[in-house]
From TrEMBL:
Keyword set includes Transmembrane: yes
Membership in a protein family: Belongs to the CTL (choline transporter-like) family.
Stated name of the protein: Choline transporter-like protein
Role of this protein: Choline transporter.
């Protein structure tokens, strides 16, 4: 089940040649973990949540059993299907409940019951009055506290002229907002295709700006140092003033030296990586082709969002069931029955929280594996006309059939890191203003370290899923082999993750700014609007979310293509019998690299970094997998 007990040895990469089930024990564990939620529903007493119950433990609409020590329990309430609260305005916001006596009644009243006589007459007679039942609860039509709250809100909106204009502007511009959101969606789809044509320009613009900024900033600091030093030598300041000026000169000298060192190191790194930037541009070019051949990849965030929403609805429903679970206990101070979770049952809530994180990460991992499988099929199919009719659907079927256990294991590792981080974040928020500076610093450091570890493992998981899609190996074997490939190509990984991420960031900025500009022009022609702030904020926020979702898929495609390219160049050299699988754009990059002597015959990758990581170094990763 763990890496330490893995029996898979080192093997050559054989893309798309064979498929087998991976990490079956983890699939069994994940299935049992998920099925245990049915026990949650059973223990949660769904009937109490749906039908409601009175203050004496009787579930409305059914025959009940006697509760020891509660005389009014065990009543037959088949005819009384609605819960009626005597004082519905007495809300306990902290405990999220109504502090009122609840009764099971057959009808809901249509008038306010002001006296005990009114209540007794209503309970005894159950006259057929007009009712407003909502989810088997009697929702009063005329409640003073509700009316006062509504009146206060209406008064606030009416008196606040700015708020009234903003709300009116949003309501009046709803058609424009919808059109602008559609525009953001279209721009995101177009950007995913055309970014391959503008990536080269963006990369060189970025390079020029970084060089100018670093050299210019260093020059300004040295100029300020010389100017302040000259002013200090020729000044007639007081003793205190000269001390302050001398301190400023020393600080400027330190800043100038530091900026100079940073600039020199940055320029050296950029000089070393200048050729590897060309690989980033080529990968972006090929990624654009992938979306032309596999346009349904752009819909993956949409399907993932629907799956997450359905799961979250189910999760909230089970949580509500758990809220009604427990053993009925009589409260001696109030005389009413309350349900309390006792024994192992009280730990089900924490079990349920772990399920929220694990299954959510599993759904996201399924999207990554689906994208990886489709892109791997595209890359390692020499004749693109022989690709499956629906590569994405084929990838989904292959993932469901063979690799769900790998997804379960990878998502569980992320869950193990995320839970401690969330716990520490919650503790930090609860102790805000109470802990000392040292404790606060340690908590923040721990949260930051766990966040960094989570991001690193997420990136390694993504590449492990790609390796599984290529070679159909278990999670730990795939993670080990992907890790070695990434280390051998460390400088390329750095170039792709810096230059590539910045190019995608510029793409997001372009989409948001274009949508905002179109919004300003559209709203400018509507003279009825006096406040544009909220409509533009809504449009810009939606544009950013859409751009982030779609360009994140583009980023995943680039990462998958890079690992495929690294495997291709490692095990193939273009000779007969070892032909490359890569696209023409990547082939040009390899040919140019060979001309410059960076590749030798049979060197494959050229070992731009001779593996500085031996198999023993993988002990760092093995304990994680062994969990």
């Amino acid at each position: 089940m763990g890496c330490c007990s893995s029996t898979e040895g080192k093997r050559d990469w054989k893309p798309l040649e064979e498929h087998s089930c991976t990490d079956i024990p983890w699939l069994i564990i994940f299935t049992l973990f998920s099925l245990f939620n049915t026990f949650h529903i059973q223990e949660g007493a769904a009937s109490r949540l749906i039908s409601g119950y009175d203050s004496y433990g009787n579930t409305c609409g059914r025959n009940n059993t006697k509760i020891e020590g509660v005389p009014l329990s065990g009543r037959d309430m088949k005819e009384n299907k609605y819960v009626f609260f005597l004082d519905p305005c007495n809300l306990d916001l902290i405990n999220r409940k109504i502090k009122s006596i609840a009764l099971c009644v057959s009808k809901c009243p249509d008038a306010e019951l002001k006296t005990y006589k009114d209540v007794k007459q209503f309970v005894d007679i159950h006259s057929p009055l007009k009712s407003l039942p909502v989810f088997h609860r009697c929702i009063p039509v005329d409640i003073g506290c509700y009316a006062e709250f509504a009146q206060a809100f209406v008064t606030f909106v009416s008196d606040n002229s700015v708020l009234r204009r903003v709300v009116a502007g949003v309501m009046a511009s709803k058609e424009i907002i919808m059109l602008l959101c559609l525009l953001a969606l279209v721009l995101s789809l177009i950007m995913m295709v055309v970014i391959r044509y503008i990536s080269k320009v963006l990369v060189w613009i970025l390079t020029i700006l970084v060089i100018i900024g670093s050299i210019g900033g260093t020059g300004v600091l040295w100029w300020l140092y010389v100017d302040h030093k000259h002013a200090l030598n020729n000044s007639t300041l007081s003793v205190f003033g000269k001390e302050v000026a001398a301190d400023n000169v020393k600080a400027l000298l330190v800043y100038s030296i530091g900026a100079t060192i940073f600039t020199v190191v940055l320029l050296i790194v950029m000089f070393i990586m200048r050729k590897r930037v060309a690989l980033t541009i080529s990968l972006f070019h090929v990624a654009g082709k992938v979306f032309i051949h596999l346009p349904l990849l752009a819909l993956q965030p949409f399907w993932t969002f629907i799956c997450l929403m359905l799961f979250w609805v189910y999760w909230v429903t089970v949580l509500l069931f758990l809220g009604t679970s427990g053993t009925p206990i009589k409260n001696n101070s109030t005389g009413v029955v309350e349900y309390e979770m006792q024994g192992p049952l009280q730990f089900l809530v924490w079990y349920h929280v772990v399920g929220l994180i694990w299954i959510s990460e599993f759904i996201l991992a399924f999207q990554q594996m689906t994208i990886a499988g489709a892109v791997v099929t595209y890359y390692f199919t020499r004749n693109k006309s022989q690709m499956p009719v629906t590569p994405i659907l084929s990838s989904m079927v292959r993932t469901i059939r063979y690799h769900l256990g790998t997804l379960a294991k990878g998502s569980f590792i992320i869950t193990l890191v995320k839970i401690p981080r969330l716990i520490l974040t919650y503790i930090h928020s609860q102790l805000k203003g109470k802990e000392n500076a040292c404790a606060r610093c340690m908590l923040k450091a721990c949260v930051c370290c766990l966040w960094c570890l989570e991001k690193c493992l997420a990136y390694l998981n993504q590449n492990a899923y790609t390796a599984t899609a290529i070679n159909s190996t278990s999670f730990c074997t795939s993670a080990r082999e992907a890790f070695l490939i990434l280390v051998e190509n460390a400088l390329r990984v750095a170039a792709i993750n810096t230059v590539g991420d910045f190019v995608l960031f510029l793409g997001k900025v372009l989409i948001v700014s274009s949508t905002a500009f179109a919004g300003v022009l559209a709203l400018n022609y509507q003279k009825d609007y006096t406040v544009w702030v909220l409509p533009l904020l809504i449009v810009c926020l939606f544009a950013y979310l859409v751009a982030h979702c779609f360009l994140s898929v583009f980023e995943n495609v680039v990462d998958v293509l890079f690992l495929c390219f690294a495997v291709d160049t490692k095990y193939n050299d273009g000779s007969p019998g070892r032909e490359y699988y890569m696209d023409k754009a990547l082939m040009e990059y390899v040919e140019n690299s060979k001309k410059m002597g960076r590749y030798g015959p049979g060197d494959g990758d050229g070992r731009e970094m001779k593996s500085m990581v031996s198999y023993k170094m993988l002990v760092v990763f093995s304990p994680v997998c062994c969990t």
